[in-house]
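S., here's the first fold you wanted:
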Amino acid sequence: GLTWCGETCVDLARDEAHCGGCDRACASGSACVDGVCEAPLDAGMDASFDAGLDAGLDAGEVLDAGTDGGDAHDGAVPADGSARDAGPPFDAGPPGCDLGQLECGGACVDGVSDPTHCGACDVRCGAAEVCAGGVCAPTCEAPRQVCAGLCIDTRNDPDHCGGCGITCVSGLCIDGLCSDPVAGHVVLVGHDYESSRPGMNRVIGNAVFLARSAPVDVLVWEGTSTEPSRAGTDAAIRQVATTTGRAWTRQAVFDAGKVPVGLVDAEVFLVYAQRGSDDDELRGLGALWSTALATFVARGGVVIVLDTMGPTNSGSWQITSTARLLTAFGRSEATGAVLRIAAPADAVALGVPLMYSAERTSVWYDSDEATAVVADAMGRPVVIHRTVLP
């Protein structure tokens, strides 16, 4: 998505100094929107926010709750049917960089191959070096090769798939071959897995193995999750891997700004239950990752967010809502409730008992989504699975 102008890779759709073409500068006070110089926006949010998301999400499913901060309450829907209190206004800000990009000085750059931001902002390679996989090197090493002046891994680059200049119409390059698009998935799970039983473990394991690769490469965000939650979640995935004969790899990322880069080589993005974050932090993560997650899901990726009860926030669901991946407004405790499979044909329900007990700190969601896989006796969703067609 970047263009070589002089000695810099730029985004012609958003760069005021190169708007629509190299050296086509916008007038002072104007903004570059989709390659055209326009007057500044008054809405306080980059106009590309919706455009970037609409490429990966059905326009009919764009959520209003994500941009105004959603509802911060933990309780049930008001009995009188009155409108929910949206809480204080929340400005999500710009949507952040796309898949594989770093934000450097307000611009999105390719930290994997950009010789002026190689692996991190302002890390410049020498005149005789190239940027290969985010590291300055004297030359490209296999399997990468030089394409258009950049070190490209032709095994997975959709613009150089199997060789320079071979473009995949689908935007998917797997092992050097263009692949047909596949459906993406978003799964919101009301369990943190600090305590669990084998039946409940099938939920998170099945969600991970919605990805069909072997092994499944899972990028994880630990954030403010607890160690018991992480250990319990990983143990549940290993249980299902053993039962089903599947395999997975785990790669943690600790800098939120580098998640879009990490997603390039991942099939699954797993967010552990964020017990210690506040609401602003959770919404901020959703806003920062929104563009990259939309692209990730549209290309067939799986996004899984776990949730829990905690004293500092209204729920990890705020990440998915702010990122416009699915709708939720709040969560309430479901510990000890008898849960039922609401969609037995759903892949996430495979091998899960038709009824099981909600372990400690489980939650149900206040949500309009019609894709509940697991619900309590009142029909309130505990596990939500949304399939996204490319």
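And the second, which I think is the more interesting of the pair:
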Amino acid sequence: MREAGFTLIEILVTLALLSLLAVLLFGGLRFGVRAWDGAQAHGAGMEELHVVQDRLRHEIEAAYPGYDASDPLHPRIDFSGGEAHMDFLAPAPQALDTPGRIRTVLSVARDGNDARLDMEAGDAASALLRHAASIRFAYSDGDRWTDSWNGTLPKLIRIRVSFKPRDGRIWPDLIVAPHIDADSGCVYDPSIRHCAGRP
């Protein structure tokens, strides 16, 4: 009569199958962890872009059409923009506890092969966006787009950002209309080089 039990071959086959199953499970677990980490990084990157776009929208919408009095005979709105910079007046942030308007400058800088978007508001400077492939500004009068603008506020301002192919972040074109297109209460006085009756 044969005794009950496993042969050496059966045990070896069982161990081989268990090892294969463990390898497959571990590989699936590693893939799942990498996918989770990638999704979290992508979500964080997209959240950062939403914050940056909201900040830019707020600043550009508040652009103020103050007069540049450097040439009193030919007053012009204090706004200048190019493909890689924008310079305008905007209300001072409440956090500064300073009434009036401050100069705001948006500029594109290079970090090696990467583009960076910097913002200076008064004395405060910060990098709003890093590690982009390209960042470009454009301006419109409502009919056509151009890469430079001076002397008046444009009707629309576009900020276009592209990223490297494997970056994963997506930036839909940000198109903003400044809310104030004229200082209706200003009567320009060339003798004092700004609006009459204002300090």
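Why I say that: The helical segments are 8-61. The two ends are 115 Å apart (CA to CA).

Talk tomorrow,
H.
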